[in-house]
């Protein structure tokens, strides 16, 4: 037995401390530990790739559908690769490349994904369920402005770029978004002027303005924090 902090440890406890985390498929130590989204159970890269191709595209542990694999994780460089199962395309098997250009950080991955949402490359699949008290939300009222500002501050930097963003732009968007409330309209989408006014600050792109409004409404209905919302919403 060994003694730690004045307390004795049994040999069994010593053994437990030496246990190395193992892949539940091969029962060996991880080789290129790979996490599944959204459940975040982990396996060897080759083990889970083989599992998906010969067995199922659900997690072997919790049976939840697998959206993507997060692998080639480098803690020192704060980088990783991610493979989405929908990337399979016409191939008969999922064969994520072992090496590809890494995101330099999770923040970079987020910026690219959010930018693709506004480009229309990624389409909304499922937003988080709305809270009961926000389920009937149709118009931005003053009580929603603080959360609206958080959303705009983050999303406008992605859409127009950090260099082009300033507080004036955010303030102007808030004024536009309050128009339906001030005019006693039943929905923000009832006033074409809102989309038109937003698009004038987005390179006259009404599609981007509409996507921004849809994302904002889903975010406000969810009641979630900004980070929780964008990590919970799924796109295809």
TrEMBL record:
Q: Name one GO molecular function term.
A: zinc ion binding
* Lineage, broadest ranks: Eukaryota, Fungi, Fungi incertae sedis, Mucoromycota, Mucoromycotina
Catalytic activity line of the entry = S-ubiquitinyl-[E2 ubiquitin-conjugating enzyme]-L-cysteine + [acceptor protein]-L-lysine = [E2 ubiquitin-conjugating enzyme]-L-cysteine + N(6)-ubiquitinyl-[acceptor protein]-L-lysine
Q: Tell me, which GO biological process terms does this entry list? A: protein monoubiquitination; protein polyubiquitination
Q: What is this protein called?
A: RING-type E3 ubiquitin transferase
What organism is the protein native to? Mucor ambiguus
- What UniProt keywords apply to this chain's record, in alphabetical order? Metal-binding, Transcription, Transcription regulation, Transferase, Zinc, Zinc-finger
Identify the SMART domains for this entry: RING
Which intervals hold domain RING-type? 23-63
Q: Which SUPFAM superfamilies match?
A: RING/U-box
Q: Does the keyword Disulfide bond apply?
A: no
Q: What is its EC number?
A: 2.3.2.27
* InterPro entries the record matches: Znf_C3HC4_RING-type (IPR018957), Znf_RING (IPR001841), Znf_RING/FYVE/PHD (IPR013083), Znf_RING_CS (IPR017907)
Fetch the PANTHER family from UniProt: E3 UBIQUITIN-PROTEIN LIGASE TOPORS, TOP1 BINDING ARGININE_SERINE RICH PROTEIN, E3 UBIQUITIN LIGASE
């Amino acid at each position: 037995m060994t003694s730690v902090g004045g307390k004795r440890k049994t040999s069994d406890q010593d053994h437990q401390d030496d246990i190395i985390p193992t892949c539940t498929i091969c029962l060996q130590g991880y080789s290129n530990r790979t996490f599944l989204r959204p459940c975040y159970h982990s396996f060897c890269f080759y083990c889970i790739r083989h599992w998906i191709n010969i067995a199922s595209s659900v997690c072997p542990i919790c049976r939840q559908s697998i959206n993507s694999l997060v692998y080639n994780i480098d803690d020192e460089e704060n980088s990783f690769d991610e493979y989405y199962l929908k990337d399979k395309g016409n191939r008969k098997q999922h064969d994520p490349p072992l090496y590809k250009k890494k995101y330099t950080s999770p923040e970079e991955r987020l910026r690219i994904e959010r930018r693709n949402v506004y480009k229309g490359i990624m389409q909304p699949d499922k937003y988080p369920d709305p809270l009961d008290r926000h389920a009937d939300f149709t118009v931005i009222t003053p009580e929603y402005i603080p959360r609206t500002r958080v959303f705009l501050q983050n999303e406008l930097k992605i859409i127009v770029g950090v260099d082009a963003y300033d507080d004036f732009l955010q303030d102007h968007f808030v004024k536009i978004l309050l128009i339906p409330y001030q005019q006693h309209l039943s929905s923000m989408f009832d006033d074409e002027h809102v989309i038109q006014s937003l698009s004038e600050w987005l390179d006259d792109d009404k599609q981007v303005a509409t996507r921004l409004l849809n994302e904002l409404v889903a975010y406000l209905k969810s009641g979630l924090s900004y980070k929780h919302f964008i990590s919970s919403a799924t796109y295809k």
